[in-house]
Amino acid sequence: MARAQRGIPVAAYRPDIDGLRAVAIGAVLLFHAFPKLFPGGFVGVDVFFVISGFLITGNINRGIEAGSFSISGFYLRRVRRIFPALLLVLACCLIAGWVLLIPREFKQLGKNTAAAAAFASNFFYWAESGYFDGAAISKPLLHLWSLGIEEQFYLLWPLFIVISQRKGKAREFALAVIAISFVACVLTTAPLSYGSFYSPATRLWELALGGVLALAGGKRKKGSDRAAAADRTSNRSWLAELGALVGIALIAAAVWAFDASTPYPGWKALLPTLGAGLVIAAGRSAFLNRSLLSNPLMVFVGLISYPLYLWHWPLLSFAHIVGLGIVPTPLTIGLLVASVVLAIGTYLLLERPLHRTLLSW
């Protein structure tokens, strides 16, 4: 069901978006567990970026239109949404590190934890080494680089949307951001591979792409009932159906066409980001969206995708450290199952009760 933020109008809930989240987290998990079978699964993060930009910008835009949006309230809601599960995972990682790591490694883990808590992991790992280097698997919190980029995006994006909305130029501003960031991404990927991968400046366009989709949808909803009816009809058109199919195909192509040697992100990041954008733009009425992505199992995986993302990599990483680089396939599968169990527990016992409590404030 759609969840109301206090003072913020509620958008119609789209289960297909949670289903798309399931596609993204599935790609990431399979890449981390079986990189030879799913060599480009890291593009799931790009899909997450587009989804996040779409949802957050939509919430901001609706709040502005209703006259109930506040910057402080937005930041407070982000802290409430992100921190509980994150702090739980960070605490568990520190406990595991105290038991399993040697002092030098534990000290490094402490630094990584501080960077993660400050949403600066992307800068920390940028300065340290590469995402695909030989030591990547031995860094239990490496995956939190993407969370850092998202939160850095949220730090400034609401301000820009508020200012540009007052001038009636929100979409134009977002398109300019996409153009500048994308050009920077393409130009820096080859000479500054690590910098391009970890920098918020060269990833901003992916989140802003989702933002443009939200702003475009919001503008359509201002129209008459006739316009709304036309929009619903268009979502059922052959163009929307084709867009959803092409979008999923682009994401799948990236998962199997890319690997650790692919210069990334660069222009090749267009495959998963445009793919995600096409699926979102197709609307919930498109056949693929309503039949596959809105399937209850897909939706549930999408709902637990955040804690699942948090849990899976530390389990794989610590297993690698303890096994001195040798993690048998059955154990890898068991760790993925364990991450799902932990994610479900975190969602049901922490996130949902906390969310219900916050709604009553």
Describe this structure in words.
Helix content is 75%, strand content 0%. It has helices at 15-33, 44-66, 71-100, 103-117, 121-128, 145-166, 170-189, 193-198, 204-221, 225-235, 238-257, 270-282, 287-293, 296-303, 305-322, 329-359. The radius of gyration is 20 Å and the shape is globular. Mean pLDDT is 89; it is low at 1-8 and 223-231.
The largest pleated sheet is described as:
none
Mean pLDDT: 89
Q: Count of DSSP E strands?
A: 0
What string gives the helices and strands in order? HHHHHHHHHHHHHHHH
The Cα radius of gyration reads 20 Å
Q: Report strand %.
A: under 5%
Whole-Å distance between the termini?
A: 19 Å
Individual helix count: 16
Ranges with pLDDT <50 over ≥5 residues? 1-8, 223-231
Oligomeric state of shown chains: single chain
Fraction of helical residues: over 70%
Shape: globular
Main features:
single chain; 361 residues; mainly alpha; disordered N terminus
